[in-house]
């Protein structure tokens, strides 16, 4: 089931943060028919009136939404400290230094909820 994409629930806090992060991702608008890059609203309007009348625009971004949402992907959570860990190294370091039992996060849903809870 790992390879199949499934929709996940996003709390409103995470959704608003994801939208603001997506706004920071550079993108270009291109014509779906001829793939010309259209740099302004005026150029876009003229292009579809004159050159590709039956086509439309498409936004091509440098990152997908899934790549932007990786910010919410956590590896571990310490209930004692209410601290989240982004990678295996920081999780292991915390275990060794504090002696706390760190919970391993196994799903994106849990990761998003803990991200919101700890922020």
TrEMBL record:
Residues 78-100 form the C2H2-type domain. Transmembrane segments: none annotated. This is Zinc finger protein 451. It comes from Mustela putorius furo (European domestic ferret).
């Amino acid at each position: 089931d790992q390879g199949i994409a499934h929709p996940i629930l996003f709390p409103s806090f995470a959704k608003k943060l994801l939208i603001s992060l997506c706004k920071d991702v550079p993108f270009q608008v291109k014509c779906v028919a001829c793939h010309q890059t259209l740099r302004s609203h005026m150029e876009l309007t003229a292009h579809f009136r004159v050159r590709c009348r039956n086509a439309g625009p498409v936004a091509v971004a440098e990152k997908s939404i899934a790549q932007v949402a990786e910010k919410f992907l956590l590896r571990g959570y310490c209930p004692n400290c209410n601290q989240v860990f982004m990678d295996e190294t920081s999780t292991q370091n915390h275990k060794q230094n504090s002696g706390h039992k760190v919970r391993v996060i196994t799903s994106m849903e849990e990761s998003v909820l803990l991200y919101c809870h700890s922020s």
